[in-house]
Structure formats: C-alpha cells, structure tokens
Write a sequence for this structure.
C-alpha cells in the first residue's frame, strides 16, 4: 500500500491527504435539512448528513489527490449510526480509487492491540470464515504503550501489505508537555522516531517502509531532525492551513527525492466554502470550493518544493 | 460518578472491576453454535456470540462487583456488528446497576478529543436535540498528546459528572520504553502522574477526583510512588491474574483509607472455566465459574489489605 500511495502521489503530483473530519457546523444547511427531513433530528439524521456531505466532497476531489483521512472521532460521536457513516465513507472512497488513512489513533497492548489492527486493517476470524471489519488502508497509532502496542499492527501490516503512521510529534500546542521532554539530552519524540525506524525496518516497500510517522506541520524544525532520524518512514503531516502550518514550513518533511511526506488538510478543504477566499462558491457549491482549495494547496506545496 | 463508584466499592467490599474482553476463544462452544446457527459464521454471528457470553457473565456477577470494563477493541474488531454488541453490553450492564468503564484508550486534540468525549461520556448535539452515543460512565484516555487531548474529556466529565482514567504506567512488559525514560532524573510516568493530579484538581468528588489514572499491577514499586504523586486520583489497576500481578502487589495502590484503587481482572474471571482451578464447573456453567473467580479475587485482595 505504501508503494501504491507513492505511485498515486507521483500521478497526481499532490502529496496531499484530505481530512474527512465532518463537524456538523461545516455541513451545508440544505444537506442537514434533507437528512433531518428523512430521519428526523436523530443520530441517524446526523449520520446521513455527514455521509452526504462527505460524498459531495469525495466526488469533487477524488481525481486530484491520492488519499483521504477520515477522523473516526467525528463519526464515533454519533454512536452506532456514526460508525455506519464512517464505514460507508471508507468504502466509498476506496471505490473511487482513493487510499484511506483511518485516523483512529488507537493503541493498546498485545491481543488488544491486535484486535484493533485486525478490525481496521486486517481480517477477523469467525468460525471457519474471516471478514474485514472497517478495512482502511492505513491507520494512525499511538505509541505511548511501547513496542507491545505497535508490533501487533506491524504484524497485520505485513500480512495485508498495509501501513501505519505512528504519532511522533503531534501538531497541537501542548504536544511538548511529554513529547519534548529531554531524555539523555534529546527530546522524547526523537526516541519515538528512532523506534519508528526500527519497527519499520523489516517491512519495507520499494523505497519506504510500511511504518510511517505523524509529525505536525506546526513544528518544522523538529520535522527537519525527524526526517533524518527515520529516513525510510513516510511522514503524515497534519496542521497545514487551519492550524497554522504554511507551504514553506513543509519542505523539511520531504526527502531529496521529493517524496517522504504527505500533507493533511481537513477543514481548510472540506469547509473551504466558509472561508472568505472561497465564499463566492456559496453553500450549494461547497464541493467545488473544496476542489478549488485542493488545487491551491497543491500549487502552494509545489512552489515551496521548487523554491528549496 | 466517582462518588457512586466509591459507594458501590464499600457496599460490595470489592474494589474489583471485571474486564469484559470477550475473545472468541473464551466463548463456550454451545454459545457460538447457537449464534452461528441463527446468524451464520458472520460478523453478526460473532457479535451475537460475544453478547450472549457477556450477558451470562454479567447475570452471574452483577451483585458482587461495582463495575465492569468492556475493552472496545474486542468488539471493534467485528466492525459495525461488534460495535452494536459493545453498545448492548454497556446498556445492559447499566441496567443491572453496574458502573461501566469503557476501556477505549482514546486520545486526540481539541475538537477531535471533544468528539470522543462527547461520543463516549456526553451528549452530541443534532439540530435542536441531543443524544448519548455510547454513554459509558468512565473511559480510559491516552495522554501522549498532552493537555490539549485530556482537557476536552475533563470538560465533559464536569458537565456529566462522569470520569476518566488516564494511562500513566501501563502493565505491559515494554511500557518502560517511553514511560520509564528519565526526565530531569525522574521517570516520565511520574510527570504524567503529576499532570493527572493537576487535571483532576478542579473536578473533585467528595474525596477523589473525576480524573483517575491507570497503573499496572505488574509494577507495584512504581504504584507506590504514583500513589503519593496523585493522592486524590483513583487508580485503575490492570494486570492482576493473567498478566502476573498478585494480591500482595496491590496494597501499594490503595490509600490509608482502604480506597483509591480498583483492580481489573479480565480473562482471569470471564474465562475462569478454562482454568484448571475452575474446570469442574464445565463449559455450560462458565458464568458460575466466573462468579467463583470473583469471590476468590475478593478474598485475595481483602487478605492482602488486612495483612498490610
């Protein structure tokens, strides 16, 4: 799957992943109205609204980008109907040829971590048969529990030729509270980065590992260091746009080959129509606004990479 | 909810939480057969099997213990039908008067963390109405992303008078890879423990905070230190039984008041019938074996506390 991701990045010339994090305040009123008319103001109604909203965006951008990243929390908050909308979104994106990165940030130990890996990347055994549960292509993983938490994911990645992105240095303001603490003179995130390189060493695609990392766009200097600490890890970079990361900050996350990073934007794309810059599209054409925002982001990144 | 937990611990004289982590290999053959006959060897069949299995155990132990802790990964691996079984289990346990600790180990940032908090502890807004998604009483939270990840849970805990247990020092062998790293001469888990105390300081129940901690039974010396670092945090202690923790190891997790800790056992109770010690019950009476195992565990803990 890492090979496919790289191929699609080259084909689209867009190292971009669109974060499908549908908050209700992003969903156009006409979509909410239709969903509530059909299902009432219920969890099912909310799930229908976010699903229709997602579908519009996916239809508008699927040819421009290699991947999408649905944030499961935004679905999980609507209980079972929300999880059904998550699964529909994953399936639909795959039908459209998109690679799906499930932003699940799961992490546990042993058989429990394996259950998450099985449920999201692999197949679960039921009697003599086996089934995919949610069936994303990649997922994000939290490393706080150490190798016991990550290795079960690596095992399933090898079986399924899928991948993970391990949280190393997250984009949020308080990420330093624990991640930046100095251990023998070096920040903890570097130690986690070294582990990412080790976990990924024996599950390599053609040029990058199945085991990638998450490093926030808001920390470009740390990105520069981590790029060297884990040269074969693809870096998923959140925090572009709404969180303050800029194109020029992103260059350090890429290797000399122009690869090695994929930049996420969520609300900057999916709620583009709510920005002044794209307001002329209007609510009805929210998906066209998203398409325009993807094109602008692609240009921003291309210029930044050309200028380095 | 922390007050209710303490009241129920006193009433039952059992600082015990039963981990409802239903692996298919624990489920008696006759239950699997009935479920597969009705639903086939499908995800629905698996979900029915684990639900019936859970129900039997809950019916056998609900009067003995204050709380249960379903591990969501064991349900999530079966996709949507698994999540439905999780929700049925949560609801049924609450009907039986049990406090439900959702072992979800979620953690993200800002609005995303709030979505998890809303989905599992709080109410989500849908138009003019609001709904509970999964509606546990407590959940476990991963602290790797810092205060940005934990504060949204604390906010919802205050609104709902519910609680969280933050991972501090986990029970697994490799938990030390990051958690034990020395920061200014002290292990990282102590720093996390201090944060737990800070996060919980302004959401106190009568004697303990809404914000608790997870510290593994397999690390009693660390438990002794952490008990002092966060005196008002209730400690959820996994790792008893199957993972090697013993009654005598547990005393350090309790305060002088005999409170402050609740010990989890999962397979040691739910799969007791598969142990030699309880084999005489037989598969058909698996739930009675679970009841006997709870009684033995209660006795083991009471003796350890009496001997200190």
């Amino acid at each position: 799957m890492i090979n496919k991701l790289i191929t699609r990045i080259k084909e689209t010339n867009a190292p971009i992943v669109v974060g499908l994090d549908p908050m209700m305040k992003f969903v156009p009123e006409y979509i909410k109205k239709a969903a509530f008319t059909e299902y009432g103001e219920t969890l099912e109604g909310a799930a229908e609204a976010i699903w229709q909203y997602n579908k519009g965006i996916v239809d508008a951008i699927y040819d421009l980008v290699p991947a999408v990243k649905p944030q499961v929390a935004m679905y999980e908050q609507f209980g079972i109907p929300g999880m059904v909308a998550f699964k529909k979104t994953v399936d639909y994106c795959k039908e459209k040829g998109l690679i799906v990165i499930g932003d699940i940030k799961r992490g546990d130990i042993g058989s429990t971590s394996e259950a998450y890996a099985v449920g999201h990347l692999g197949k679960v055994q039921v009697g003599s048969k086996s089934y995919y549960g949610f069936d994303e292509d990649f997922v994000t993983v939290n490393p706080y529990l150490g190798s016991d938490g990550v290795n079960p994911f690596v095992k399933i990645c090898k079986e399924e030729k899928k991948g993970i992105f391990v949280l190393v240095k997250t984009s949020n303001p308080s990420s330093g509270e624990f991640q930046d603490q100095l251990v023998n003179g070096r920040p903890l995130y570097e130690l986690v980065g070294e582990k990412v390189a080790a976990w990924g060493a024996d599950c390599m695609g053609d040029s990058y590992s199945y085991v990638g990392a998450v490093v926030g766009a808001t920390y470009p200097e740390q990105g520069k260091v981590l790029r060297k600490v884990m040269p074969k890890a693809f870096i998923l970079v959140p925090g572009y746009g709404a969180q303050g990361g800029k194109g020029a900050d992103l260059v350090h996350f890429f290797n000399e080959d122009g690869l090695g990073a994929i930049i996420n934007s969520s609300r900057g794309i999916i709620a583009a129509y709510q920005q002044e810059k794209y307001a002329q599209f209007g609510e009805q054409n929210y998906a066209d606004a998203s398409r325009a925002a993807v094109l602008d982001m692609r240009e921003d990144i291309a210029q930044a990479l050309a200028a380095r």
